[in-house]
Amino acid sequence: MNKFQKKLFISLIVLAILTPAGLILPELFKAGDAWGEWSSDTLKEQLGFIPAGLQRLESLWSAPVPDYNLGGEDASMIVQIASYIFSALLGIILVGGFILIFSRLIRVSKKESV
Length: 114
Prior knowledge:
The chain has five helices and no strands. By secondary structure, it is mainly alpha-helical.
């Protein structure tokens, strides 16, 4: 691992550890949902209506782990924080693994074409 890769890896770990800030800060300041993460019900309260596009596409995708929370809706803050960090690390591992495999496939195909 070269110097750049080490810095990148450390930066990604720091960002993964900071992911619960989006959960902690709104709770700390009693701000409600994080900006842009509103449900259609919340939007209806704020705007007085649900945008037609959102209403039409709302059921198109359902997150495999809603709110990145492995402990359910009533989980403690510690469980929610751990879930956020776990989700971030899992995402880093999956994307990093995909990039590693893809780059090796490209490298192999270049060697075969020479």
